[in-house]
Amino acid sequence: MKKILYITTISGFLPQFEKNDVEIMQNMGYEIHYASNLKKPIYTFDEKELKQQGIILHQIDIEKSPAQIIMNCRAIKQLIKIIDEENITAIHCHNPMGGVAGRIAAHYSKADPYVIYTAHGLHFYKGAPILNWILFYPVEKLLARWTDTLITINKEDYCCVKDRFKLKKNGTVEQIHGVGVDLDKFRPMPEMASMKRIELGIPNNAFHIVTAAELNKNKNQKIIIEAIAVENKKDIYYTICGNGPDEDELRKLIHEKKLEKQVQLIGFRTDMNEILQTADVFAFPSIREGLGIAAIEALACGVPLIVADNRGTREYLQNDKNGLICEAFDQDAFVTAIDKVYSNVEYRKKLADYCRESVIQFSTEETVRTMERIYSTMDKRIS
């Protein structure tokens, strides 16, 4: 039996984002293996359920930070052992360190598997700090030579890789629109809004901002909290969904701004399609994004966006049509954007009416078709 090993740094990434890919490969007759740091879950998942789905799990001591050299070197050795002992036919790696460790392990393994890497936003990009180019560009350029298929999720990364990198012989560069959004699940359901607001503690007549993202500095939730403090309107509420290292810092900021009654952190949620029904606007102020599937899910639910300008949001945000664009560190711009949507109900409705139409190309069906083609090409080359 052919075997494919999925490698991620972020534990729980596979069940959260790669269900469709797993299903494609199972339908093609592949045995599914999954390696990650299962001891440090970011996304909630059930190991027992994954095993019942026929997925074989492997614990590796991989860390998100490249500075964790000892742990990541250990993870590479663990991956080489897994690839060789299980006679892995192909690997598909995700997340930056997953891509580094997976491709190094594949290169030095005896099994010599076919290598796919999905770059969920390269760390070097137009406007990125020079240090990012110095540190990450040479590594990615080298590892591209050990890659059969390199998948990007935005046009800027695609053009960069296509123009600058050389892959393995007959290697290909592809672009997909993220992992795809289930447009049947994420759709406007106005009948649900009132009850869900009660559950979340949001008054029916309040203006509700929602964000779904890991709690870290890059996701930049603090600028929305600070903008709400400047607005100083008691009927503006903000719900932040997600876990992450900056939780304590954000709670401290909420306390300092005396916003405990208006801003809440509710952790990672599996009911985002329902929570989005309560939102008047979805805030996505990330400094850097590869794409940003959470924002696309909001658009699919008819919720307009307020975003920071980056290569990810440029893929779907049309300023003044389905949302508003701000510079990531421009607090005044976010204050103005929030106030514009807050104070003008007709304008808000105009934005909302175009939201769903603007993300049809990001549907699960489109992504699945692309991945079926990529995996089919891989399978033919392996055969």
Descriptive notes:
The chain is an alpha/beta fold and 383 residues long. It has two domains: 3-179 and 363-382, Glycogen Phosphorylase B (Rossmann fold); 190-362, Rossmann fold. The chain has 15 helices and 13 strands. The chain has helices at residues 13-17, 19-27, 47-52, 69-85, 96-108, 130-144, 155-164, 190-200, 221-231, 247-256, 272-275, 293-300, 331-343, 345-355, 364-382, and strands at residues 3-7, 31-36, 55-59, 90-93, 114-119, 149-152, 172-175, 207-212, 236-241, 263-265, 281-284, 305-308, 323-326. The strands form two sheets. It has a seven-stranded parallel β-sheet with strand order 3-2-1-4-5-6-7, sandwiched between helices. Helix 3 (47-52) links the parallel strand 2 and strand 3. Helix 2 (19-27) packs across helix 15. The longest helix has 19 residues, at 364-382. The radius of gyration is 21 Å and the shape is globular. The model has no long low-confidence stretch (mean pLDDT 95). Keywords: Transferase. InterPro entries: Glyco_trans_1 (IPR001296), Glyco_trans_4-like_N (IPR028098), Glycosyltransferase_grp1 (IPR050194). Residues 22-154 form the Glycosyltransferase subfamily 4-like N-terminal domain.
